[in-house]
């Protein structure tokens, strides 16, 4: 649409973030915007459907937020909590009653806000600090984790958008 803004990364620097982390900030802000648009367009009956056995919109959105939370936990040099582990196991479960997309998106927005706050406080000196990931303690760095967290979240939001288009019968390309 003509009145829409360009994607976040094309709007210039965002005040308060280390310039080297601007791509991460841009990606997370884009996640917020894309999810808000998605939540306004998806009928309630589509949230937990699995077209062709693909993952549901609900799963992709919950996972985008959950993975972001977990990866930023590792970026702080911390281990996951029992609550984070339980939440990861339940990302594909609709719940009873099933969670609405608006509820899930609101949760993800809170997670993105916390991630952005953490990102604002990051220093250049902290970016290459070694970090361990998962029970196996696989090697990464603060920068590696926040970058992967941002790209992983955008990937799942994109999958949710695609699934919504499939379910709605939208045949536009691009």
**Can you name the CATH architecture?**
Up-down Bundle
| Main sheet summary | 2 strands, antiparallel
Q: How much is the radius of gyration in Å?
A: 17 Å
Class computed from helices, strands and strand pairing: mainly alpha
Strand content: under 5%
Number of helices: 5
Per DSSP E runs of 2 or more residues, the count of β-strands stands at 2
Describe this structure in words.
The chain is built from five helices and two strands. With 174 residues, it is mostly helical. The protein has a single domain (15-168), classed as dinb family like domain (Four Helix Bundle (Hemerythrin (Met), subunit A)), CATH 1.20.120. Strands 1-2 form a two-stranded antiparallel sheet. Helix 1 packs parallel to helix 5 and helix 2 runs parallel beside helix 4 (101-120). The radius of gyration is 17 Å and the shape is globular. The mean pLDDT is 95.
Characteristic terms for this protein:
about 170 residues, two-stranded antiparallel ribbon, 2 strands, about 5% strand, globular
Q: Summarize this, please?
A:
Helices cover 54% and strands 5% of the residues. The chain has 5 helices and 2 strands.
